[in-house]
Each structure stands twice: as C-alpha cells, then as structure tokens.
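The instructor's notes for this session suggest beginning with a concrete chain rather than abstract definitions. Hand out the sequence below and ask the class to guess, before any prediction is shown, which regions might be ordered.
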Amino acid sequence: MNELVFVGLGLHDEKGLSLHGLDEIKTANEAFIELYTSLLPGFSHERLEKLSGKRLHVLSRKEIEEENGRVVLEAAERGKTVLLVPGDPLIATTHVTLRIEAEKRGVRTRIVHGASIISAAIGLSGLHSYKFGKSVTIPFPDETLSTTPYEVIRQNTKLGLHTLCLLDIKTEKQRYLSIHGALKALLEIEERKKAKIVTPNTIALGIARAGSDKPMVKADCVRKLLSHDFGDPPHCMIFLGKLHFMEAEALIQFAEAPEKLREDTP
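After discussion, reveal the predicted structure:
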C-alpha cells in the first residue's frame, strides 16, 4: 500500500517512541528520520535501528524544506513509508505541508502521536492547560531581535492568559537558545517598549530538558532566573497570566516559586 506514516519520537530519547510507533517502523518498506526540528538529548540513532531492525535514513533540513520532501514522497509512492519526527509529528508546519502533498499524490497518510513539548511543559508547570494563550518562538537575538514574542506575551497577559515560549534551535550548528539569552533579548525589547511586560521583577517559569528523567523547573522573578543555571538544552519558558490559587500552589511546590505568589493570588 502507498502510505506515509508520521511517527512521533517524544522528547528525550528513543524510549519516548510508543509501541505503536515501533510496530509501524518494523512493518515499513522504508523509514526516514529528521532530527533538526528539535533536540533529543539522549537519543541514539544506532539503538533505535537495533531496536526496530530497520535502517533509518537521516534527512537534512534541505531535503525536507528546500526539496519539499521529495525523497520521502517518492518512497511513499512505492510502498509503506515511515517518517520519524521529534515530539509530536504534526506540530511543525513543515510536516503539515508534506502531509498535504502526499494526499494530493494519492498517498494515504496516518499519524502516530508522540509527547509534545507543549503538553509536557504545561504538565511540568502545574498550570491549567485551558488558560494558555498563543505560544511563540523566541529567535536568536544576534540574528534578529524580533519584537513578536514580546507582543504575544503582552497580548496574552492582557487577557489573563499564560504564554509558552519555545526557544530557537539550530541543530545543524549545535546552537540552542538558552533561557538566559531569551530573557536578555526580552529585557532589551522592554527597554524600547517600556510597557512593563517583561521586567526584572516579572515572575516567569524556566523549564529545561522536559521529557527526561531529571527535568529542571524553576519559577522566579526574571532577575533571579537570569543567574540560575538551567544546565543543558533544550530550554523553554512560560510567562504567567492571571493565576488560580491552585496554579500558584503548584508553582510553589513544583517549581520553587516565591511564597508571595500564594499571597498575591485571590
């Protein structure tokens, strides 16, 4: 059967792959994997090949984006093909484009979901998932000091909603934006905008290595987060909207947030 199956790898290593996903690899004619859209710190290509008994063809950004996934689509037109993707496979818009093109070619598509940083970060924080607004990616400030993340945080804050901020990565160059770097960029924008959205006293939440056995979750004012050692990537952040008393308690218990959060929450 001409088929393309998108399989999520989860967040940390090959153990994040579901049993369903493993079965899909084993029964595929060809299997591809891309590792540029996110960092899987504990992942081993060799271990997954041994576990699945299948050779995994590693795809570059160029093959997926510039060449429109041609090599994957051509394989799917010949038989069952699996594309392994970090996290949950259709979160990245690149893969949505690939799925649309496959369907246009008459190739059946399916999805085997994996853990996503979106649900993992929210779960680790203890915040209520329905109280999040639009999420945003903060780019490397030395490439472009975009004001978009700042404006998204401002819009969500005005609505009383939390903001999940993903931090830019360039896996090909082994560059990963840190919480420290992202906060410095936002403070620089604050200096220009002066809207008091991201100040040294703003309470935020930093998360590192979600999906691993030892993630780091720390809530504090921006001033203190700047000097906190979050360790190895990947990192992400959450800016807080209006807190429910249970959310405040969760941040204190799970993220060592300041006790004053309890006092400031109605």
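Then share the key points. The first strand starts at residue 3 and ends at 8. The chain has two domains: 3-112, 117-264.
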